[in-house]
Specification:
about 400 residues; Rossmann fold; Rna Polymerase Sigma Factor, Chain: A; 7-stranded parallel beta sheet; 4-stranded mixed beta sheet; about 45% helix; binds nicotinamide-adenine-dinucleotide; binds magnesium ion
């Protein structure tokens, strides 16, 4: 690791993970400094963050926002340099403006910068799970070749990352179990989910998150994406990965060892803990999160996931088993379907139906190249978009 303070690029700075990362970074001015801030299209929110954190560079992915970003920085008297577009972002991530990259862009849009950080040997705090679902082998291989250290900042994978520090070899692990809150519709039947609204779906009982992952949590697709994420991060086959619904969201995941020991990581549901683990590792640093008072919570419950009411988890397991382009198709169809659901164009139950249709229409083919994966992603997006347009015409 290079000398302190470490320069941190926060990608997806205006989002939920971005805010948590910036909160932790601001607590450690001696060891961490924000050097790059990047967002999708919210220029005003990005400008406000620049005024607060004074990075060297600010990037707006949407190129039409460039002039407003540049002028806004000037008006505020900031010497932050303005950039626009994904190529500019990839270059900043790979260049010497940062040592650490917080990859917290939502969706497949985050793949390119995740790969750039992995190729460039940066410490990669990976929240953008979609990049691993889409191209996990390529991301892991790139990190391996460059020596980039990936620290997962999805709470479950961060928990597993911590628990795995108590063994030497992967063969000592019997099984890894991801916990799931069950989302806002836990315990409900499939039929009762027909009319749920986007507002109900994003009202997560335990975590405060961006809209896309909140819907994924409500369908349980999030847990499916996380199984694929765990498969790539920890090199575990699907028969050594399980899911347990745990409504209190205090146990963030468990690792079972061959000697019968099970290690779990517990804590309040606040992403600043996982981010502090990544930002400080191998040291522990303050995150602003209080300790866990188990007496005040009283109990920890566990139950099996309901695959009948929440078929997205089953679809993700099937895509993981098929391999090749299947996870890319699953992810792309899901992104399009979730966005249409959030815009009120389709029903909640159409999400798994559209994903299932895409997987059936685009059977898995082997995918060793990025081009093949991106082609599958694009095909699945087009197919799902036209299925949604067809539904709208019939309605
Ligand atoms: P969010 O919607 O709150 O924020 C998304 C961020 O991505 C915003 O800053 C947005 O401007 C940016 N963005 C969108 N499209 C972009 C593009 N094309 N180029 C550059 N930036 C773009 O989402 P979030 O909840 O913070 O989630 C971010 C990622 O972290 C997702 O992959 C999610 O699955 C993962 N994650 C989130 C949580 C959580 O608690 N929120 C937990 C675990 C994992
Ligand atoms: Mg998670």
């Amino acid at each position: 690791m290079s000398s302190l303070p470490q320069r941190v690029a926060v990608l997806g700075a205006t989002g939920s993970i971005g805010a948590s990362a910036l909160d932790v970074i601001a607590r450690h001015p001696d060891r961490l400094r924000v050097s790059v801030l990047a967002a999708g299209s919210q220029v005003d929110a990005l400008l406000a963050l620049c005024a607060q954190h004074r990075p060297q560079h600010a990037v707006i992915a949407d190129e039409s926002g460039y002039a407003r970003l540049r002028d806004g920085l000037r008006e505020r008297g900031l010497d932050t340099r303005a950039h626009a577009g994904s190529t500019a972002l990839d270059q900043l991530v790979a260049g010497d403006a940062c040592d650490v990259v917080v990859a917290a862009i939502v969706g497949a849009a985050g793949l390119s910068s995740t790969l750039a950080a992995a190729h460039a040997g940066k410490r990669l705090l990976l929240a953008n799970k979609e990049s691993l679902v889409l191209a996990g082998e390529l991301v892991i291989a790139a990190a391996h070749a460059s020596g980039a250290e990936i620290i997962p900042v999805d709470s479950e994978h961060n928990a597993i990352f911590q628990c795995l520090r108590s063994c030497r070899a992967q063969g000592e692990v019997r099984r890894v179990v991801l916990t799931a809150s069950g989302g806002p519709f836990r315990g409900r039947s499939r039929a009762s989910l027909a009319d749920v609204t986007p507002q109900q779906a994003v009202a997560h009982p335990k975590w405060s998150m961006g809209p896309k992952i909140s819907v994924d949590s409500a369908t349980l697709m999030n847990k499916g994406l996380e199984l694929i994420e765990a498969h790539h991060l920890f090199g575990l086959s699907s028969d050594r990965l399980g899911v347990l619904v745990h409504p209190q969201s205090l146990v963030h995941s468990l690792v079972e060892y061959i000697d019968g020991s099970t290690l779990a990581q517990l804590g309040l549901p606040d992403m600043r803990t996982a981010l502090a683990v990544g930002l400080g590792w191998p040291e522990r640093i303050q995150s602003g999160v209080a300790g866990l008072d188990l007496l005040s919570h009283g109990r920890l419950d566990f139950e099996a996931p309901d695959l009948e009411a929440f078929p997205c988890l089953r679809l993700a397991c099937e895509a993981m088993a098929s391999g090749g382009t299947a996870p890319a198709v699953l992810n792309a169809a899901n992104e399009v379907a979730v966005s249409a659901f959030l815009q009120g164009q389709i029903s909640f139950l159409s999400i798994p139906a559209l994903v299932e249709d895409a997987l059936a229409a685009l059977p898995a083919t082997p995918a060793s190249s990025l081009d093949a994966l991106l082609a599958a992603d694009l095909q699945a997006r087009r197919l799902t978009e036209s299925a949604i347009a067809g539904q709208a015409q019939r309605a």
